[in-house]
Amino acid sequence: MIINKKWVLKKRPEGLVKNTDFELISENLREIEDGEILIKNEYLSFDPTQRMWLTDLPGYLPPVQIDEVVRAGGIGRVLESKNPTYKEGDLIFGMVGWQTHLITEAKEEDRFRLIPELLPIPTMLNVLGTTGITAYYGLIELAKPKAGEVVLVSGAAGATGSVAAQLAKEAGCYVIGIAGGEQKCNWLKGCGLDTVIDYKNSNVHEELFKAAPNGIDIYFDNVGGPLLETVLFLINMNARVMLCGGISGYNATEPQPGPRNILNLVVQRATMQGFLVLDYLPKSQQAVEKLAGLVLEGKIKHLEDIQEGLENCPQTLNRLFTGENYGKQMLKL
User: Fold this and answer.
1) Which residues, 6 or more positions from 96, have their beta carbon under 8 angstroms from its beta carbon?
2) What stretch(es) of the chain map to CATH 3.90.180.10?
3) Average pLDDT of the chain?
4) How far apart are CA 171 and CA 191, in angstroms?
C-alpha cells in the first residue's frame, strides 16, 4: 500500500501564506485502474502564479478549491502503469500538486508529458521546463527581437526573466535587467546583461531613465504595477510590451489598478500583449531543443534554488515574494 502525503487548502490566504492556511494529510492510495499511472514526485516547481491560484478570483485556471490539493507543476517518475503511453521508470512532467504521489491518466490535454533525461532534473524543470518555454515563446516568437534593439526585463533574476534576458542577448540586443539585491544583480552581470538595476538599493524609476536614454523597444514584464507605468513613458515607436506576469499584485486580495498612461501605446504605435505558456505547450519541443542546445553550449546560465521536504511547501512558496530565492524555485521530495 502506497501512502501519499499531501497539502490541501483549508482557507484563503491573506498576504504571505501560512501553514494554517493548509493541512498536511496522509492517505492510502488505491490500486490503479486501466488507463492510469502511479507517479512518485521527485521535484515540485514553485512559481508566482501559484499564489494567484489560491485566491478566489477568476483567472486563466480556476482557483484551487477548499480541501483540494494545492496545484503545482513538477516532475516525477512512473512507479506503475496501466497506460500504454507510459512505462515504469518514465520521467514525467505535469500538474502534480503539493504531494508525494498521485494517480492520474496523465492526458496530454492535462499538460502531462514525458521528459527526456538530457540534463539533471532541476535543470530540466528550470530552463527546459515551463519557465524556460515561457521565456522562449514570449520573447522569440511574440516580441521578435532584432539585433541592436533595447530590451528591458523585470524580475530578471527569476527563472523566466533570466532566460528571456539571455535569449535577448543571444539575439544581439542591448539588455537591461531589473532585480533585487547585490548578489542577484552581480549574477545577471555575469550572464552578460549590459545594465542591471538593483531595485532594492536604488530608485528604479529614476535609474530606468538613465539606463535607457534612447528608449525601450521590448519590455518583458514579470512584475506589473507602478513599474509598468514608468516603462510606458519610455517605450519607443513600435515597441512591444510582453505581459508575462504581475508578481507585484499576486498577494493582493483584489485586482490592481492598471497604468494611467496606457494611451502612450497609441502615441508610439506600440503593442501590449499578454500571453500564457499553456498555449505553446503543444509545440514546446521546438523551444526545448533550442534551449537545451544553448545550455549545453554554455550560452544560457541558470540557477536553481532547491528546498527539501514536503513539509516546507508553504515556506518555499513565500520565498518567491520575500526575495529569498535565487533562480528557479523548487522543492526536492
Assistant:
1) 39, 41, 44, 72, 73, 74, 75, 76, 102
2) 3-127+302-332
3) 93
4) 14
φ/ψ of 289, rounded to 5, equals: -65, -45
The confidence band for 58, taking pLDDT boundaries of 50, 70 and 90, is confident
Check residue 254 and give its pLDDT.
66
What distance in Å separates the CA atoms of residue 160 and residue 115, rounded to the nearest whole number?
19
What is the Rg, in whole angstroms, of the alpha carbon atoms belonging to the chain? 20
Q: Which residues pair with 272 in a beta bridge?
A: 241
- The answer to whether 161 and 154 are in contact (CB under 8 A) is yes
pLDDT tens for each residue of 247-281: 877 766 666 778 999 999 999 999 999 999 888 88
The CA distance from 325 to 333, in Å, is 18
Candidates 2.60.120.10, 3.40.50.720, 3.20.20.370, 3.60.9.10; correct CATH number of 131-278? 3.40.50.720
Q: How far apart are CA 287 and CA 173, in angstroms?
A: 20
**Amino acid letter, 228:** L
Place of cell 515607436: 237
Question: How many angstroms separate the CA atoms of 168 and 298, rounded?
Answer: 15
- Residue 126 to residue 302: CA distance in whole angstroms: 8
The answer to whether residues 250 and 321 touch, using CB atoms and an 8 Å cutoff, is yes
